Amino acid sequence: MRGPRPEDFDTNAGHPTPTFPAGGSRKKGMGVRTWLVLCSSGKEQATEAGKHTIMRRTGLPARDLRILDPLLSYPSTVLGRERAIVINLEHIKAIITGQEVLILNSKDPSVAPFIEELQRRIRCHHHATKPQEGVNTEGAAQGEAGTSQLSGEEARKDKKQSLGNQDGSKVLPFEFVALEACLEAAITSLESEAVRLELEAHPALDKLTIKINTLNLERVRQIKSRLVAITGRVQKVRDELEKLLNDDEDMAEMYLTDKLAQKQLENSTASSTSDTVVVDLPEGDEDDRHVADYFEHATLVSSESCHRGSDAHNLLMRAHSALSRNSRGTSSTRSGMTNKLNVQELEMLLEAYFVQIDGILNKLSTLTEYVDDTEDYINIMLDDKQNNLLQMGVMLTTAGLVMSLFIAVAGVFGMNINIELFNDEVAGPGKFMWTVVGGTAGSLFLYFGAIGWYKHSRLLE
């Protein structure tokens, strides 16, 4: 690597100081951006945060944040991570967590309608789940001792029952409400652009078929360029949704509310069981009900056989090993069944927008076929005109050849020779006229004979 040159240093001071480009300070400050934060209650707050702050807040790696960088050109992407969902769809650049939504380009005029719609949906979701949360809180206060013994499956059922309206209708989790708003805004934008392009394309193509000129050709060229660009964007969104629908694990990663509820359940159960026996549990054990049963059994046996200290210790170790095997298998089975059931909910949401984006792509494909058909028609017309020009060229060339023969005869008669035809007393003007008329008739006969032979040979139509 080349070191700094001597002219890169400022020698006016006591010690040489390297001078850096003027844009260095600007690049250093580019990491801090303005984010619009929408909490689960619908309140908004604009905050300035750097890359590392967002990483700590959402748990996302740096490579996922680069997807949202407006200075970089990344295609449409939907990523599900452990604590957040990254959305990069058209003009929508957001991060969805289990409790809030962070929007990057909130000052963009095209994003303002999306923010209003998202805020309205979040408030509706908050009002729909707030009464149920109040009821669940009162029930939890009355039966605090009983709820500590609930299994993971029962707790998830209570969580799902809380996500419902008073009339019994299902309410989506917070992250799915925000995800649905992002998908609808992006797909609606693409659909409106596709409809506008279709309305402009048909009249321009019809004018081109009627009259081929430079203005109409330039207009169709611009429309085709826009059509190729929007088709690529729609195809990318469709591929991203199809990729999510084909991978259940990616969809399971997007259940942020269930992850938060499961984490709270594990923390509460761990704190309740720690009062009885203090043992380091291995990671991945999710069935805490078996934990209480095994350790309660081990405690009873050890109290009855207190005079056998070594036997009680061995029994406790065997119970812990059996717990590890049994709990690991049971938790994996129940987790798989729960994810399968939960994924169906997200799958239905994604399929609805997949069908919509697929319809937009079909519409653009139809428009592309119409443009291609128009191009084929224009090429056929141009080929026909070119054929007509070639036929006219053949006829003119033949006429020129016949005229050159007549001119050759006139040149022969123009030579300075003495013959009786040039003697007025012998030939007279009558023979001269017969010579001119005969040469003209012979030329016409040769011309029409050549044209007839061309048509007989199918060289001319």
Automatic annotation (TrEMBL):
Region (Disordered): 1-27, 127-164
Residue intervals passing through the bilayer: 389-412, 432-454
Keywords: Coiled coil, Ion transport, Magnesium, Membrane, Transmembrane, Transmembrane helix, Transport
Superkingdom as given in the UniProt entry: Eukaryota
Entry keyword annotation includes Ion transport: yes
Subcellular location: Membrane
Entry annotated with the keyword Metal-binding: no
GO cellular component: membrane
Membrane topology: Multi-pass membrane protein
Pfam name, any one: MRS2-like
Coiled coil: 227-254
MF (Gene Ontology): magnesium ion transmembrane transporter activity
Signal peptide: none
Function (record text): Magnesium transporter that may mediate the influx of magnesium.
Family, per entry: Belongs to the CorA metal ion transporter (MIT) (TC 1.A.35.5) family.
Protein name, per record: Magnesium transporter
